[in-house]
Design brief:
mainly beta, 5-stranded antiparallel beta sheet, 4-stranded antiparallel beta sheet, 4 helices
């Protein structure tokens, strides 16, 4: 592969800013003008990867690819955040708001640089850092900003003219859909004084009241929200969260589905607990995956009707990442988990491999859809900083460590234009690699009294399973319906036989009582009745242990010894009942 088509990694740390080849030779890109100052920040690429911008204490720098030449350097101190418009026409830059003490007036702190001329074209006011970035449509046809309880829109990158306004009292957040044919705007207003929060979806520029909105959803208990649009921009998922609740210290979360055709519904999750991660499939506008529930967390694929299609079972995971083609997804467990990574064939719902990258704080797919980078970054972790490059089949290809007296703050793949890489057939066999993952193996603490006893797993994980909704008998073919009846009859027969086996206990007599599959007869002799009752109690305990063993639970040595006494107990019980 030519060096120009090998994806690059931008790396920022206490050593400054530099570029490295993502794979092949993994070497630093010598043509890139390395930034040696540790004060660089605001690192960002344009969406096609042709521009890279960052800031230092004194200036703004922009490099153009593939030449790696410095395109612009502007003296502009205090800049903290940067963002390119979707087509790279503008670079938006934000700095902390401040006041001119002499004039007693604020200084504009949101700036727009024209990437064709390099000129500072417009400066506006944006006091808060939260939500500072303006939002563009994918074709840059419109740009929107939230200003004093109203949404202001500019068209065709004309920053001097506000063409439309959407006035919604106390609007706090909004989102423009990523589609290009029609522009949709979702606006959120939090509730107050017993009034519910609400979300409205409009088609630009048809703004107005609830009667004009394409979709309208109201709900209580929403302190924070997050938008998740599907690839086409025709529907989105809305995650609402509360700071705290009566049932959980961490608050409650609800997941809602809204469509631009007016459909709204709630996504009913199969396990209680927080929602960790949500992602739409890049190749489908009708499938999304959610990781949710108390640990071990569940992961489920849903369709646009919010019906479960496939259940990945439970496991130590809290994040999900699709590659750019949508054919492979990775379920990860980072943060307070031990770095477990499960790579799945998203089409066949088949596990490709499972591996571990401990102390990982960052994960990202390479634009080729086959490699990933995991990194340990400061300030989240200040020890063992560095990054690793893997192939999704489980091979570790490169491990770059940062010296112990230095820090790595950011790792970012350089984006590539669409069509540079093609989707490759999914592999299940690991590729060749000279590196072998050498993760530190640590054992769970065991009390001194437990030595010599078989260890018990902390969690019992549920396996993956098909979670498609049951088919309606009215829509089933005759053959499918016939097979379904056969399966039900076979299951009923098995249950009947199992019940008959459980009923094979000594015959009852008048005044007997029953408990959990065993009959406790009354003989009229209090001493014998007491012995029989104790025997039946032990047999009931054995039956429970056998049930746990069938479910896959590992029994301890004393429990296994108790199972071996079943025949002797049954014989003793029969002797007592017969002789009495």
């Amino acid at each position: 592969m030519a060096a120009s088509t090998v994806p690059k990694l931008a790396l920022r740390g206490s050593q400054g800013l530099w570029l490295a080849n993502g794979y092949a030779d993994f070497q630093e890109v010598k043509e890139f003008p390395r930034e040696s100052t540790p004060t660089c920040k605001g690192l960002t690429f344009s969406e096609d990867g042709t521009l890279l911008a960052w800031t230092t204490e004194q200036s703004l720098k922009i490099v153009k690819f593939p030449s790696c030449q410095l395109l612009y350097e502007k003296e502009h101190p205090r800049l903290a955040c940067l963002q390119f418009s979707p087509k790279g026409t503008y670079l938006a830059a934000w700095e902390p708001y401040r006041v001119n003490r002499e004039a007693q007036s604020g200084i504009p702190n949101l700036h727009f640089y024209n990437m064709e001329t390099g000129a500072l074209e417009k400066s506006l006011f944006q006091k808060k850092q939260a939500g500072w970035a303006p939002q563009w449509s994918q074709d840059e046809g419109i740009m929107g900003r939230s200003v004093n309880n109203e949404l202001q829109f500019n068209e065709n990158n004309n920053l001097d003219k506000i063409t439309q306004k959407l006035h919604v009292q106390k609007v706090t957040e909004f989102s423009i859909s990523p589609c290009t044919e029609k522009y949709y705007v979702a606006a959120y207003v939090p509730g107050s004084k017993g009034q519910p929060s609400f979300m409205r979806v409009y088609q630009y520029p048809n703004f107005g009241g609830p009667e004009i909105a394409l979709a309208n959803k109201s709900f209580f208990n929403a302190d924070r929200i997050n938008f998740h649009w599907n690839p086409k921009g025709t529907s989105f998922l809305l995650l609402t969260s509360t700071e705290s609740s009566d049932s959980s210290y961490y608050g409650d979360q609800k997941l809602h589905y809204l469509s631009t055709n007016g459909e709204t519904s709630m996504v009913h999750l199969g396990k209680n607990g927080p929602v960790y991660s949500i992602q739409w499939s890049p190749e489908s506008n009708n499938e999304f995956t959610v990781v949710y529930g108390y640990m071990p967390a569940k992961a489920t694929i849903y369709n646009s009707k919010c019906e479960p299609l496939f259940d990945f079972g439970t496991g130590p995971r809290n994040e999900i990442y699709y590659n750019c083609f949508g054919n492979i997804l990775c379920l990860c467990g980072f943060g307070n988990l031990r770095g477990n990574m499960e790579f799945w064939d998203a089409k066949k719902h088949r596990l490709i491999c499972q591996m571990r990258a401990e102390d990982t704080t960052f994960f990202s797919w390479c634009p080729d859809g086959e490699h990933v980078v995991t990194a340990t970054l400061a300030p989240r972790l200040r020890v063992g900083n560095g990054y690793k490059i893997w192939h999704y089949t489980g091979c570790l290809l490169h491990h770059e460590k940062v010296p112990s007296d230095q820090a790595l703050w950011q790792v970012m793949w350089q984006p590539v234009p669409g069509g540079v890489f093609k989707q490759q057939p999914t592999k299940y066999k690991p590729i060749d690699s000279s590196l072998v993952p050498t993760e530190a193996k640590t054992e769970a603490y065991r009390a001194p009294m437990s030595k010599g006893r078989p260890s018990q797993p902390l969690h019992t994980y549920e396996p993956a399973s098909n979670a498609k909704p049951a088919q309606n008998p009215e829509n089933m073919s005759k053959a499918a319906l016939k097979n379904k009846k056969k399966r039900e009859a076979r299951k009923a027969k098995q249950e009947e036989e199992a019940g008959a086996e459980r009923a094979e206990v000594p015959p009852t007599s008048q005044g007997s009582s029953q408990g959990a599959g065993f009959v406790i007869p009354s003989t009229g002799n209090p001493e014998i009745d007491k012995k029989i009752k104790n025997l039946v109690k032990k047999l009931q305990q054995i039956e429970k242990l056998k049930e746990q063993q069938r479910e896959g639970k590992t029994l301890e040595k004393n429990q296994l010894d108790k199972l071996k006494t079943e025949d002797a107990l049954m014989k003793e019980l029969q002797d007592l009942t017969i002789n009495s």
